[in-house]
Amino acid sequence: MFDECFTPNGAAVIGQFLSLYDPPIESCFLVDYLNRQGALDEDWGPILRGSDWIVVSRDRGQSRKLKSKGAPLHIVLPRANVTGIFLSGGLGNASRFKMV
Hints:
Blueprint lengths: L7 H11 L11 H5 L6 H4 L9 E4 L15 H7 L3 E4 L2 H5 L2 H4 L1
Parallel strand pairs: 1-2
Protein backbone atom coordinates (compact mmCIF):
# COMPACT_ATOMS: atom_id res chain seq x y z
CA MET A 1 0.00 0.00 0.00
CA PHE A 2 1.53 3.30 -1.09
CA ASP A 3 0.39 6.27 0.99
CA GLU A 4 -0.33 9.81 -0.20
CA CYS A 5 3.34 10.80 0.05
CA PHE A 6 3.67 9.00 -3.27
CA THR A 7 2.09 10.36 -6.42
CA PRO A 8 -0.54 8.23 -8.16
CA ASN A 9 1.86 7.73 -11.07
CA GLY A 10 4.74 6.81 -8.76
CA ALA A 11 2.62 4.22 -6.99
CA ALA A 12 1.45 2.83 -10.34
CA VAL A 13 4.98 2.49 -11.74
CA ILE A 14 6.30 0.70 -8.66
CA GLY A 15 3.14 -1.42 -8.57
CA GLN A 16 3.79 -2.54 -12.15
CA PHE A 17 7.24 -3.76 -11.14
CA LEU A 18 5.83 -5.60 -8.14
CA SER A 19 3.33 -7.38 -10.38
CA LEU A 20 6.24 -8.97 -12.28
CA TYR A 21 7.20 -11.14 -9.29
CA ASP A 22 6.13 -14.77 -9.22
CA PRO A 23 3.69 -14.87 -7.55
CA PRO A 24 2.74 -11.24 -8.26
CA ILE A 25 2.79 -8.85 -5.32
CA GLU A 26 -0.47 -6.92 -5.01
CA SER A 27 -0.15 -3.19 -4.48
CA CYS A 28 -2.55 -0.31 -4.10
CA PHE A 29 -2.47 3.48 -3.81
CA LEU A 30 -4.06 4.59 -0.52
CA VAL A 31 -6.30 7.16 -2.21
CA ASP A 32 -7.74 4.44 -4.47
CA TYR A 33 -8.21 2.08 -1.52
CA LEU A 34 -10.08 4.68 0.54
CA ASN A 35 -11.82 6.32 -2.43
CA ARG A 36 -10.86 9.71 -1.03
CA GLN A 37 -7.87 11.98 -0.61
CA GLY A 38 -6.60 13.84 2.44
CA ALA A 39 -7.52 11.34 5.16
CA LEU A 40 -5.58 11.78 8.38
CA ASP A 41 -3.09 9.04 9.25
CA GLU A 42 -4.97 8.50 12.52
CA ASP A 43 -8.16 7.80 10.55
CA TRP A 44 -6.91 5.40 7.90
CA GLY A 45 -4.14 3.58 9.82
CA PRO A 46 -6.55 1.63 12.05
CA ILE A 47 -8.66 0.67 9.01
CA LEU A 48 -5.76 -1.55 7.90
CA ARG A 49 -5.62 -3.42 11.23
CA GLY A 50 -5.87 -7.15 10.63
CA SER A 51 -5.09 -6.84 6.93
CA ASP A 52 -2.01 -8.11 5.11
CA TRP A 53 -1.08 -4.67 3.79
CA ILE A 54 2.39 -3.23 4.36
CA VAL A 55 2.41 0.54 4.08
CA VAL A 56 5.24 2.13 2.08
CA SER A 57 5.65 5.82 2.80
CA ARG A 58 7.90 8.75 2.06
CA ASP A 59 6.42 10.51 5.11
CA ARG A 60 9.15 11.64 7.46
CA GLY A 61 6.71 12.95 10.07
CA GLN A 62 8.70 16.16 10.43
CA SER A 63 6.17 18.67 9.16
CA ARG A 64 3.63 18.16 11.94
CA LYS A 65 3.50 21.80 12.96
CA LEU A 66 -0.28 21.75 13.16
CA LYS A 67 -1.72 19.55 15.89
CA SER A 68 -4.83 19.20 13.72
CA LYS A 69 -2.89 16.76 11.52
CA GLY A 70 -2.78 14.26 14.37
CA ALA A 71 -0.09 11.75 15.24
CA PRO A 72 2.55 10.98 12.60
CA LEU A 73 2.36 7.78 10.61
CA HIS A 74 5.36 6.18 12.33
CA ILE A 75 3.33 6.35 15.56
CA VAL A 76 -0.08 5.45 14.08
CA LEU A 77 0.91 2.25 12.27
CA PRO A 78 2.49 0.40 15.22
CA ARG A 79 -0.55 1.28 17.35
CA ALA A 80 -2.73 -0.36 14.68
CA ASN A 81 -0.38 -3.37 14.36
CA VAL A 82 0.35 -2.48 10.73
CA THR A 83 3.84 -2.83 9.25
CA GLY A 84 5.30 0.30 7.67
CA ILE A 85 8.34 0.90 5.51
CA PHE A 86 9.56 4.49 5.54
CA LEU A 87 11.80 5.70 2.74
CA SER A 88 14.08 8.39 4.08
CA GLY A 89 17.16 10.31 3.10
CA GLY A 90 17.99 10.36 -0.58
CA LEU A 91 15.52 7.63 -1.47
CA GLY A 92 12.66 9.51 0.16
CA ASN A 93 13.38 12.52 -2.02
CA ALA A 94 14.21 10.58 -5.19
CA SER A 95 12.26 10.79 -8.42
CA ARG A 96 10.07 7.88 -9.50
CA PHE A 97 12.77 6.84 -11.95
CA LYS A 98 15.48 6.72 -9.31
CA MET A 99 13.24 4.88 -6.82
CA VAL A 100 12.56 2.12 -9.30
